[in-house]
Amino acid sequence: MVEPRDTIEIVNVVASTGIGQEINLKHATLALEGADYDPKRFPGLVYRTKDPKTAALIFRSGKIVCTGAKSIDDVYRGLENVFQSLRNIGIDIKGTPEIKVQNIVASADLHSVLNLHAIAVGLGLENIEYEPEQFPGLVYRVSDPKVVVLLFGTGKLVITGGRKPEDAANAVDQIVKQLKSLSFL
Fold this sequence. Notes:
alpha+beta, TATA-Binding Protein, 2 domains, 9 strands
């Protein structure tokens, strides 16, 4: 049987950076091919990169949020593409701006049907939110690593809030250990 840790897949990495200067978003929208800017709907310009496939949310302040990346390497490559595109339209970016990973979202599979009600009671209600009328998953707040894990009755997990890939792996290991100790796995 496949170990739950081996099923972990990063589905989204969100990172932020800044170029230290204001950007004229109307000018940038006209100059950047495929850029989308509608200030009535969203205050930032959306600029998509193709390889890797990411979306950069570029704000007037010069702050940039990269989302949609499937790895930390993709974040760096995607943002380097954005920096280069901004340089190509005359925005002077000095060096390589600092990039900070804000959130990694990953999925995993326990390969087992889960009794979420029993798990909510067994894990203790202080770190659990489980309201099946509101949401079909159990929300489990893990303190170390500081992540939130959504457990579903199908045995699927979503881990969010990590800042490095190991956070997801450590959270999955911890949950497997806890569920085994309670005889839920």
